[in-house]
Amino acid sequence: MTAKKTAAKKTAAKAASAKKKPTLASLRDDLTRRYGDRVVKRSTVKPYRVIPTGSLTLDLATRVGGWVCGRMVEIVGPEGVGKTTTVISSMIEAQRMFPRKIVAYIDMEQTFDYDWAEGLGLLTDDAHWLHLYPNDSEDVSDMLRRTVETGLCSLVAIDSIGGMESKEAFTKDAADKVMGRNAQVITRMVKHCAVLTRATKTVVLLVNQYRANLDNPQSADISAGPKAMKYSTTMRVDMSLVWSADPLKALLPGDDEETVVGRMIRARLTRNKVAVQGKRAEFYLINAETREHGPIGIDKADEAVTIGLYTEVIEQHGSYYYLPLQEGQEKPTGCQGRPALATHLRSCPEDLERVREAALKVFSHEVQPEVTVEAEMVASG
Question: pTM of the full predicted structure?
Answer without folding.
Answer: 0.85
